[in-house]
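By convention, each integer encodes one residue's backbone shape. The lines below illustrate.
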Amino acid sequence: MSDTTHIRYKIEIYQGNEVVITFAAPKSHSPQSVVLAAQREISRVPTATHAVIRGLSGKVVEIDSEDGWIKAHIAAIKLR
């Protein structure tokens, strides 16, 4: 198994099982700012249910649309 490093974070906003928005953040951004950007984008889409974020190392975390500040920071720590 090879270690794959990505050049940017990938964020997908879901409505149920359907991807509504896909965007990327540069690797110069911190994991915390990427998670906060995903939360901001979720709040703009009233039908969004959750977001899936792929980190630079390939780790994937999921945040719910109703997750608060603490759960967002825990997700950011998992992305490191």
